[in-house]
Amino acid sequence: MLRATMNCPAPAAAPTDPRAEAARRWAAGRLGVEGGQFAQASADASFRRYFRLSDGARSWIVMDAPPEREDCRPFVTVARLLRRWGLNAPEIVAEDLAQGFLLLSDLGRQTYLEALTEHNADAPRVDSLFADAVGALVHAQARAAAEPAALQALPAYDATLLWREARLFGEWYLPRHLGVTLHGEEAGELERVLGLLVKSALAQPRTFVHRDYMPRNLMVSTPNPGILDFQDAVVGPISYDAVCLFRDAFLSWPLVRVEGWLRGYWEQARAAGLPLPAAFADFRVQAEWMGLQRHLKVLGIFARLTYRDGKAPYVADTPRFVRYVMEVAPRHAELAPLARLFEKHVLPRVPAGW
Fold first, then answer.
1. Is residue 232 part of a domain?
2. What is the pLDDT of residues 150-167, one digit of tens each?
């Protein structure tokens, strides 16, 4: 599930919140910190919460993941793997899996999303941030290639998962958000297009996939970037994380810049010996089709977050993904049914200015 981790300071946890108070006492006891500040540090699309504990000179992050709702073990596994690979993931300072508490090192207070929004007119600064993110991504993929046994601890991004994600578009976005139910030929055409996207994804070389390698989950840090929200990591298509980085859920860029960054990733990954196509044009098609699978998934997830989980703000960002789909689908003959579906059922129902 796509998670949107936000670095939004909030008031100190209220005493009437027993889990927050239990997390504070547990973390302070493990650190030997008397008093100090304890405040919510971020919100999450899941049931996880994050708090920042500070003694005035140092700070740590406390994860609260109710064990009946969330499993901390994947987070711990991937954090230790990334740190062993030399990437800037949080250090696990202490853990209590029975209670669902983790005590983590603090990677900073500014997300990439905040920094990119602040500096979006400063092209060199934006390019520098993305260069650091690409460097970390290529490094992770190169380490995965050199140490394939390490990936055995991660689930496979297999056909079952790819199909389940892609079908969220027809299960949640179309019927629940737009009030559209497909029948007959239209339903069959959508299913055939989804099949093409899944087939393309499965044909790509497989590597470590963060699965939400986007600006909200990267921190401006030293070394840069700090990497968060990796608990859903899988072994899957090599283009996935690059697409996720440049086709963000909450911030859009002109196509010419996206293509430039994507080419930079392709060049660096090829130089690192990763098995990408020899021609950039071929890799771009792989990435675009991978992106379509993700865009359809996110449309479905954001609708589900709104209508099932009561997290209304997410659906406001769905027009961004409509635009992403329409920037790609009409340019590929095999995807013409998807473009027609959007032109008939989606575009007339999307707010003006999409």
1. yes
2. 999 999 999 999 999 999
Token representation of residue 101: 């508490």
In this structure, are residues 321 and 299 in contact, taking their beta carbons and an 8 Å threshold?
A: yes
Q: On the CB side of 340, how many CA atoms lie within 13 Å of its CA? A: 12
Based on the domain organization, do 98 and 130 belong to the same domain?
A: no
- Residues 87, 150, single domain; the answer is no
CATH of the domain at 120: 3.90.1200.10
Domain count, the chain: 2
Last residue of a domain, one of 79, 105, 131: 105
CB atoms near residue 6 (< 10 Å): 16
Chain segment 283-323, per-residue pLDDT in tens: 999 999 999 999 999 999 999 999 999 988 888 899 999 99
Cis peptide before 225 (omega within 30 of 0): yes
Q: Model-level pTM?
A: 0.92
Quote the tokens at residue 216. 């909200």
Cβ-count burial 272-295 (b if 16+ within 10 Å, e if not): eebebbeebeebbbbbbbbbbbbb
**How many CB atoms within 10 Å of residue 86?**
12
